[in-house]
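Thread: "does anyone have the structure for this chain?"

Original post by V.I.:
We have the sequence but no experimental structure in hand. Need at least a predicted one for the grant figures.
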Amino acid sequence: MATEAIQQHQESAEPGKSCECSGGRECGCESCRAKHKGAWVYALGTIGFRFPAISIEKELTQAISRGDAKGLTDPQAFREALVRPENRYLVRQLCWVLSVEHVPTYILTPRDPADYLLLVEALRPNPSPVDLDVVIGMRGPTAPPQACAGLQVPVVAFDQLYSFDRESLLSSIPHPENTPADRFRPMAEEVLQRIIEVVGNTGATDEHRALNYLAVRYPAIYHRAAEEFSQNASLSSVDVRPSALSGARRIVDVIFGYTNRSTDVVTKFAVRVDVTDEFPFLVSKLSAYFDH
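Reply from O.Q.:
Generated one for you, tokens below.
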């Protein structure tokens, strides 16, 4: 039901059919999406699901009863039922939601139907506040009320989705030789948390997409933080500005400012990121930055 409602809403704006664009980047028709290239999303949050109708909730309950849920918590029972091949139809009926900082932000639908499995895999048997999901795709129109039990947020058709917890992410970052692992971990955690808590970071703007990309793909920002902290400096600012190199492509400078706790001297480092297309990439590595 959820998938069908979303598809019907999107199909009403397909090529060859009536399509009126308001000029925003959330229009669903292909002509508007071509006109407003860059309606990409690179978001960090947590994935869950909602029941678009009570009948689907009852159907999942019956599916759970047909298995062996004895001794399982609700999240464990839900996951156990949904991973079984005979219940795959239910995965398509549920409304999948990405929440950013505990706020429902996007309804998710895969471009490739095979990727529904990624949504199921994102369900943790033992959910934790440090769980983190990365969603990369294109933002479409706002979902109709019937798609997700009244929740009206933009639909994101995702191409890539992967899940981990913060501990796994931070453990995967090699710590600098001069910084013990037990000291590096809280330093890296602070940088990651600052990025996640940037105001309004839903991963939909060029600035936020660049930050989120760096957070999960570029260890150098964590190494620099460790170096600056060891020099008695604190992370005082994280800014994103259009780069002087921007032209045919959209390039931004992500600038990290560190303030020495003794002298109040501010030192800045910047990395350039190309955010023109769906998948951001580095243009230049992290290096000293000077305001012009």
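V.I.: this helps a lot. Residues 173-289 form one domain.
O.Q.: and The two ends are 55 Å apart (CA to CA).
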